[in-house]
Design brief:
Layout: E1 8-13, H1 19-30, E2 33-36, H2 37-50, E3 54-55, E4 58-59, H3 61-70, E5 73-78, E6 83-88, E7 91-92, H4 100-110, H5 113-126, E8 132-136, H6 139-143, E9 149-154, H7 157-170, H8 177-193, E10 206-209, H9 215-231
Parallel strand pairs: 1-8, 1-9, 2-8, 9-10
Antiparallel strand pairs: 3-4, 5-6, 6-7
Helix pairs in contact: 1-9, 2-4, 2-5, 4-8, 7-8
Bound molecules: 2'-deoxycytidine-5'-monophosphate (DC).
Length: 232
């Protein structure tokens, strides 16, 4: 399989569809760089929570804009995870950005235009040399509308909630399936209805519904598709 010249692969879709797991696996398989853009929105949200710009779930947009101006987000490859860890002002935050508290505030923070402007510019710079698999909500529509291969992932909300629940419980977090399901449904609503770059399928994106597919089946499906795209 030829991977030369390298392309951009955009993986967009709903919350908790397994986008990152899938994007990470295909990047490893192709020798591409994997970029989890959701982690960047989560990192800004965590920073806002820790600096008093979100109190009792209320987001102070002006305060978030001031913070996002000075925040330094960096990635460093972690061979143990086979992916890059995210750092904010030099602090490793990877383990703190996936709590339910961050999940409950991240859609609100990611709807702020100044936050999107800063993170989208960073993402475009990271993908400048191509050879990246980037997962998010607006990669195929706003960050790289010229990506050669665009995927749009979806799965039944109940299946997604169950997966996220199993993942958080495995990490020892005390959560209920009910609250996870509410978060998944609410984030879908917020992400698809926000004004700036709402989540939507790009016209030229290919849909992958993985409700009833294993990771191996998704990989086989993808490799077949990738082969067709690079040969075209
Ligand atoms: O992929 P995730 O669930 O970790 O993303 C967290 C949130 O970040 C998601 O609810 C919406 C937002 N997001 C976004 O608006 N644009 C992206 N490219 C990635 C994530």
């Amino acid at each position: 399989m030829s991977t030369d010249p390298k392309i951009i692969i955009a993986v967009d879709g709903y919350s908790s569809c397994g986008k990152s797991t899938f994007a990470k696996a295909i990047a490893a398989r192709l020798g591409y760089i994997f970029i989890d853009t959701g982690a960047m929105y989560r990192a800004v949200t965590l920073y806002a929570l820790e600096h008093g710009a979100i109190r009792s779930g209320m987001i102070d947009e002006e305060a978030v804009c001031r913070l996002v101006d000075r925040i330094a987000i960096t990635f460093r490859y972690n061979p143990e995870r086979g992916a890059s860890d995210i750092y904010v002002d030099g602090d490793l935050v990877e383990g703190r950005i996936r709590t339910l508290e961050v999940s409950n505030c991240v859609s609100g923070v990611s709807a702020i235009p100044a936050v999107r402007a800063k993170l989208v510019a960073m993402q475009q710079e990271m993908g400048r040399r191509r050879g990246v698999v980037m997962d998010g909500r607006d990669i195929g529509t706003a960050v790289f509308p010229d990506a050669e291969l665009k995927l749009f992932m979806t799965a039944d909300p109940a299946v997604r909630a169950r997966r996220r629940y199993d993942e958080l419980r495995a990490k020892g977090q005390e959560v209920s399936l009910d609250e996870i399901e509410r978060n998944v449904v609410e984030r879908d609503r917020a992400d698809t209805s926000r004004e700036v770059s709402p989540l939507r399928k790009a016209d030229d994106a290919i849909v992958l519904d993985n409700s009833r597919m294993t990771v191996d089946e998704q990989m086989a499906w993808f490799l077949d598709l990738f082969d067709k795209v690079v040969r075209a």
